[in-house]
Amino acid sequence: MAKQKQQQPKPAADAAPPPREFKTAHSPWFTYASMVTLFSLCPPFVILLWYTVVHADGSVARTYEHLRDHGILEGLKAIWPMPTVLAGKIILAFALFEAALQLLLPGKRFEGPISPAGNVPVYKANGLLAYAVTLVTYLSLWWFGIFNPAIVYDHLGEIYSALVFGSLVFCLCLYIKGHVAPSSSDSGSSGNAFIDFYWGMELYPRIGKHFDIKVFTNCRFGMMSWAVLAVTYCIKQYEMNGRVADSMLVNTALMLIYITKFFWWESGYWCTMDIAHDRAGFYICWGCLVWVPSTYTSPGMYLVNHPVNLGPQLAISILLAGILCIYINYDCDRQRQEFRRTNGKASVWGKAPSKIVASYQTTKGETKTSLLLTSGWWGFSRHFHYVPEILAAFFWSVPALFDHFLPYFYVLHLTILLLDRAKRDDDRCSTKYGKYWKMYCNRVPYRVVPGIY
């Protein structure tokens, strides 16, 4: 395969680009209904989730009764905490700390995949180091009595409330930036202001030359806050009970192992749909700034006040099963990444890989080729890596057992999210590769779950 010229994202042209075509994976009616529903329901759901877990004993029925007795609007208003100065200081301190680590820590140069406009984004791969520094700093602040992480839990509602509103303003700034100062030629308007705000204007928005906004929102704020909150919940339970239940230890260990895997493989994430194809708007950026720290951490949030004693045998069994799923998820991504890095020459499970050589045309009319792996994990299904990811989420949720549904909301959400992403990715690849994608689907007929879907 011909090697592309390596470059930073090109500056946008002086003239405004023409409106870009907005393609949907679903019917237009379903797509617009989904956008309006998510935009209107996700912010209040974050607060309702926090309130139910922390103040309603994890009972959806109790929260429902509150809203029924007071009316939805008045009931929501009564439980919605106002953002506070303390919450703002905590968020700002964390954001500035992560931004500084992103800019200042050393890291290898990494080039992302070539964009539709022919740009090759360049990153500094220092996520794993930033992750280690973040956890060591956070635990040290607690250990030496400088800052008590329990304060974060005690003001969690105010923090989420501040994130809900502050991140909406952040996304509005991204929308304005996309109109007046796009960072590269991979930008443009669809001609619909709501779509532009929801899906985003820019593929690679940056501040200056080196600060990549999507890396910050998706990785350094979203994923890092997930890890920090997981540790926070452990510390809070320890301060309340004088010990940490084995259920919390299993939950926290599995989440931290998963997040460690993410940062170990962060450069691979930069080649995925989130970074390389989805633009920076409400869907991605607000989701990572608010949805990730609130819903992704919800099993641990629930366990703070609901410690479960699993016993050594069950705890170890759940832990090992979760670790196995995380490893398979990692190995799936590693296998494909190595296949691409060696231009299809890497062995897969000790054998020469089975592959399809697919050609496609760029937006400039140039003919390029890609290799589609059809063996190893990728011979089971076209998105097999989603299966162990969903199972891993189940295993770090199941320590809560089954008294309430909410600890499993993240598993349900993740399943819907990944199945939808698989469909969107298949539709995009079908458009890109045409007959070669049909050949690929014939060879690997299942989309996600082998033998089922």
UniProtKB/TrEMBL annotation:
Entry GO CC: endoplasmic reticulum membrane
GO MF, one annotated term: 7-dehydrocholesterol reductase activity
Compositional bias (Low complexity): 1-15
Transmembrane residue ranges: 29-51, 86-107, 128-147, 159-176, 248-265, 310-330
Subcellular location, record wording: Endoplasmic reticulum membrane
EC number: 1.3.1.21
UniProt keyword terms in alphabetical order: Cholesterol biosynthesis, Cholesterol metabolism, Endoplasmic reticulum, Lipid biosynthesis, Lipid metabolism, Membrane, NADP, Oxidoreductase, Steroid biosynthesis, Steroid metabolism, Sterol biosynthesis, Sterol metabolism, Transmembrane, Transmembrane helix
Top-level EC class: oxidoreductase
InterPro entries linked to this entry: ERG24_DHCR-like, Sterol_reductase_CS
Region (Disordered): 1-20
Membrane topology, as annotated: Multi-pass membrane protein
Biological process per Gene Ontology, one example term: cholesterol biosynthetic process
Family stated for the protein in its record: Belongs to the ERG4/ERG24 family.
Protein name: 7-dehydrocholesterol reductase
Species of the source: Triticum urartu (Red wild einkorn)
